[in-house]
Design a protein that fits this description.
By secondary structure, the chain is an alpha/beta fold. 38% of the residues lie in helices and 12% in strands. It has three domains: 295 residues, Thiamin diphosphate (ThDP)-binding fold, Pyr/PP domains (Rossmann fold); 181 residues, Rossmann fold (3-Layer(aba) Sandwich), CATH 3.40.50; 111 residues, Rossmann fold, CATH 3.40.50. The protein has 23 helices and 16 strands.
């Protein structure tokens, strides 16, 4: 079938008008990005992106991440052309429960690999997917595909993206290609007022290829072809015009400009799209895409080996009976032994750490992943906690890979956006946070967690486990790998402990439980390492004692709220829901020896007994 000589422009114009129609009808959206990215999207999806519409989850498909989340309308318009969305779906843009929310949400059936995150996070997610491809292709030669990410100026200004880009350059992720929509305008001002870096020198120095090209399909195609030949990741800077064709083009007002029907008609008067209904697709566009997609499909000639199929179908199911008990060790040390044991048995487990593995004691058994050792499964990120979280999320979104991420609790807030996304997408990641109280961090304010546990508990239904001893610790791992299909938080102390006589792995897996029934009407509720001292206090005062190390079902236990006392060496925020009286810490910021800090914060056994007696 013969097509018009300007068929590319016809496709691009169709995309633009469909996207603008969505924004106009919804009275919401970002037409600036939709218009500036249209040519990039057409070039990528029509000529390069490898996928099979009949098998959307094909393991060897190219991955695409829309880091520039303001471009959701142009992405939906592309899915409409591909037959993945209907006209009604586009007309329902930004409506409750529609298939076209304001920002994209994970739906692999529609090539949406990961929820849209904060600016810069999409680049990090793409790095995770590209790293996963490198790992998988080293094991299974039939795996070979590219990862593309569309980003904006805003994305590249975020610290997390620079962390991820540096890491990707170090790892030489040659199948990662960033398509940079460089329109040079943001909400407040033009880019030169905020950044004057020489991008070519900058990204070359970070281990990347850098290509600059005009916003023309043939130029973009050439740039992508060259990028795919490189032995380093590539960033392609494409000089675009924000809000192209509108009366606010190339201005700070273009980003969230909402066009009227009259505005759209004025644009149509100057381009190839003349349909009355702005939600229609021209037949030539559909046929052209169909023809090009058929040329790209490799799925029919591609097959997975038995080895790959077995890997994709395998699950991590654990039995920790062969992990030798080591009483009076820190739980972070014991957790390291368990993770080492699991990683030696299951190839799909990777361990992410941020220059702190000797302190957290968490690392695997297979060595460091590096450009010259793709079989290693310890991922050393350096001091890049934010990128570590988002990259780990990208890895866990790929096929059957699992991740354990480990760092100190004080860094949890840097990773929290990735934790929230992992929870929403039900990704099986274990976030291990060690040094989980002031008394594990003797250096002073900047290293002492206080509100972090309370903050994590604000994420609805997130599984948070703070075991007291080895028995509960083993229960935490068995819960994640044998029962859950979602992320969990594991909070660990760094002081030597002994097993409590009445602690119980199986009860812990099911939630909170009584460690002790006393003669008193008062009940002491505690978690983690604090249960060690709480147990001694409960024995001395003959109190009931509850382990809330797994806080699930705590509100279903039979105890008197008005005669209950919570005890945790952190903020008491949130504990009022479970106990009338709350003992904890409301300040940090002192450096000293452990006993000195316990005295200063009045968290010794004697001081706590005095406080509890006063309550009683």
């Amino acid at each position: 079938m013969k097509y018009s000589a300007n068929i590319d422009q016809i496709c691009i114009d169709n995309l633009k008008i469909n996207a603008l129609a969505m924004i106009e009808k919804a009275n919401f959206g970002f037409s600036g990005a939709a218009l500036s990215a249209a040519t990039i999207m057409h070039s990528l999806f029509c000529y390069h992106l490898k996928f099979d519409l009949t098998d959307p989850t094909w393991i060897n498909r190219d991955r695409f991440i829309l880091s520039s989340s303001h471009g959701s309308s142009i992405y939906y318009a592309m899915q409409y052309i591909l037959g993945l969305l209907s006209k009604k779906d586009l007309e329902s843009f930004h409506e409750l429960n529609s298939k076209t929310p304001a920002f994209i949400e994970k739906d692999v059936q529609r090539m949406q690999e990961i929820h849209a995150g904060l600016p810069g996070h999409g680049i990090s997610h793409a790095v995770g997917l590209a790293l996963a491809e490198e790992i998988m292709s080293s094991k299974f030669p039939e795996i070979s595909h590219n990862t593309y990410v569309l980003c904006s100026d805003s994305d590249l200004q975020e610290g997390i993206s620079q962390e991820a880009i540096s890491f990707a350059g170090t790892q030489r992720l040659s199948k990662l290609i960033i398509l940079y929509d460089a329109n040079g305008v943001q909400n407040d001002a033009y880019i030169p007022y905020m950044s004057k870096s020489d991008k070519s020198k900058k990204y070359n120095a970070m281990g990347w290829n850098y290509i600059f090209c005009e916003n023309i399909t043939s130029k973009i195609n050439k740039a992508i072809r060259n990028a795919k030949k490189g032995n380093r990741p590539t960033i392609i800077e494409i000089k675009t015009i924000i809000g192209e064709g509108t009366k606010v083009e190339n201005s700070v007002f273009a980003n969230d400009y909402i066009p009227s029907k009259e505005d759209i008609q004025e644009i149509k008067d100057r381009i190839t799209y003349k349909r009355h209904n702005n939600f229609e697709i021209k037949d030539d566009v559909i046929n052209f895409y169909k023809a090009n997609l058929e040329k790209k499909i490799e799925n029919n000639s591609w097959f997975a080996t038995k080895k790959l199929k077995e890997f994709l179908e395998s699950e991590i199911k654990i039995n920790l009976n062969d992990v030798i008990s080591q009483n009076e060790k820190s739980l972070s040390f014991l957790a390291g032994k368990i993770i080492n044991n699991i990683s030696s048995k299951f190839d799909q487990l990777l361990i992410s750490t941020a220059d702190i593995s000797r302190e957290t004691n968490i690392r695997g058994a297979t060595g460091l992943l590096a450009p010259n050792n793709k079989y290693g499964r310890d991922l050393f990120f350096g001091k890049r906690e934010q990128a570590m979280g988002a990259i780990s999320l990208g890895i866990a979104s790929y096929a059957n890979l699992n991740v354990v991420l480990a760092t100190k609790l004080i860094y949890a807030d840097l990773i929290k956006p990735s934790i929230k996304l992992a929870k929403d997408m039900k990704l099986k990641i274990m976030f291990v946070f060690t040094h989980d109280s002031v008394f594990d961090n003797l250096e002073g304010y900047s290293k002492q967690p206080l509100y972090e546990i309370a903050s994590l508990r604000t994420i609805k239904d997130l599984k948070i486990l703070r075991p007291v001893d080895e028995k509960e610790l083993k229960g935490a791992f068995e819960l994640l790998y044998n029962k859950l299909n979602e992320p969990c938080i594991l909070l660990l102390h760094n002081q030597a402990v002994k097993n409590l006589e009445k602690s119980d792995k199986f009860k812990f897996i099911n939630g909170s439980y009584f460690l002790r029934k006393g003669k008193s009407d008062f009940t002491l509720i505690s978690t983690g390492y604090d249960l060690q001292i709480a147990s001694e206090i409960a024995d001395d005062l003959d109190l009931n004692l509850i382990s809330a190390s797994n806080i699930d079902n705590l509100d279903k236990l039979n105890y008197k709220w008005d005669k209950s006392i919570s005890l945790e060496s952190g903020s008491t925020l949130g504990w009022k829901n479970y106990a009338k009286y709350n003992l904890g810490l409301e300040k940090t910021g002192k450096s000293g020896k452990l006993n000195e800090l316990k005295e200063y914060f009045e968290f010794t056994k004697q001081k706590l007994i005095e406080k509890i007696k006063k309550i009683m």
